[in-house]
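Subject: sequence -> structure tokens, single chain

Hey, anyone have a minute? Need the predicted structure for the following. Not urgent.
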Amino acid sequence: MYKIINKIVDVLIVGSGVSGLYSSLNLREDLEILLATKSDFKKTNTSLAQGGISTARDENDIELFIEDTLKAGKYKNNVNAVKILAKESKSKIIDLINLGVDFDTDNNNLKYTKEGAHSINRIVHIKDKTGEGVENILIDRVKERENIHIYEYTYLVDIIKYKNKCLGGVFIKDNIQFNVYAKKVILATGGIGGVFKNTTNQKILNGDSIAIALKHNIKLKNLDYIQIHPTAFFEEEKDERRLLISEAVRGEGAKLIDINGERFIDELLPRDIVSKAIFNQMKKTNSSYVNLDLTFMDKEYVIKRFPYIYSECLKRGVDITKDYIKVSPAQHYFMGGIEVNLDSKTSLENLYAVGETSCTGVHGENRLASNSLLEGLVFSKKASDSINNTIDDINITIKNVDKVKKDINDIRKNNKRIVIEAIKENCEGVDDELFDYR
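Reply:
Had a minute. Here:
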């Protein structure tokens, strides 16, 4: 069905979000790297991240940052991972600045905002398009590296496995089957939002790495840890991605009120608590949404601080400086995934997983706001450091790979079904109507 081409590289990275890009930039420049992504470079959840990146503001804030992360995660976090996250947070922000990321500043000092469950203002941002701003710079830096080869529109069909070792990956691109052999492989394939009808994620993210891990008995963890974001723009009968209304909007003072104009919750409690309160209020008032109110805030400040949200809501007929924003909860983030250690190693030798497809345990049962991009930075660097220190002792192994006989769309649908069944198995009483089987 497909023409077959074999390719050999030192490191194979699958995914072009913050984790994949940052891991590639932290690998040695004498290594040949192939970075493959299933769509274009920017079709990632990283590009959608609005609020910002959490960071300990200084040494004195580290312990409080750790405690905020643990508390939000119901103390089900991997404490050692949380400590690493907090202690290495500021260095990652400094590194991004050195790479060219232009965070918002005031008199040359970083501006910090606050989001739910944070004790203090500690989130750096680029207005309300932080992920896109970071991703653009990382892409620019990746394109400058002669040792990093980029394959867009390249679909990961499977990993190449022999005994308990990962030898590479099988891809389909332009009706060609690429069997890519590598000494080390990093999965940075993002979340699982595409399996849900109601999500803030890119709909192409179907949990392909989770399905592949299940097929190969690679250890997974906490598949029931699925975060619901309280405030997605409410639209009738919409099966595509929901517009996220960043938690930073509430962090800057916006209020949640029900359809009767009553405020019913502290807006800056952890996401799971706020989401439950909204669901309860919707049921109590027999409504499909609640309202987010910014109308009392200064118009010019709102437009300057949240230009993306302002313009996107205007497209939908809502002027957030004058009108309430109708919002309801939507699937947002996956805290579970492929189980990894503190160096992002999976249970399969030579295979790493980073970002949302991995489970470091850093988030526990509920992710603290704006810790997602930070996790991607911190633990992809851990993966790269581990690879840099061990790759010279590894030889490339070539193993015959079967021809791919199925159409990509059939493979994608099958992966979706595998992930959905795994979630249903791990989440007691979950409603089948929540899932998108298309």
